[in-house]
Write a structure and sequence with these properties.
With about 90 residues, this protein is an all-alpha fold. It has four helices and no strands.
Length: about 90
């Protein structure tokens, strides 16, 4: 089964709104792990949750693909907006 077919199957089974809320949940979990990582560094501890950050990062990437499919976001739209954002970074 291809990745897009698996994504479409999950959306059909769980519902579009459920998958969009899953993206929000996964972003919050990534946020929590990143904050914890930074806080451990601020207090001089060795960060121990790098693997947790990687796992949550991957969860966000996957659920972003749900959102892309649900909202019919094209690669061209992504490329265009990404280009504009990188232009701003260069000017920064």
């Amino acid at each position: 089964m291809t990745e897009i077919n698996l994504i479409r199957k999950c959306i059909k089974k769980c519902g579009a709104n459920s998958q969009l809320l899953k993206l929000v949940e996964e972003c919050a979990e990534l946020e929590k792990e990143v904050v914890q990582y930074v806080n451990t560094q601020n207090f001089g501890f060795v960060p121990i949750n790098r693997d947790a950050i990687i796992e949550e990062y991957v969860d966000v990437l996957i659920t972003m693909k749900y959102a892309k499919e649900i909202l019919h976001i094209t690669n061209e739209e992504i490329k265009s907006i990404k280009t504009e954002k990188y232009k701003r970074l260069i000017e920064f």
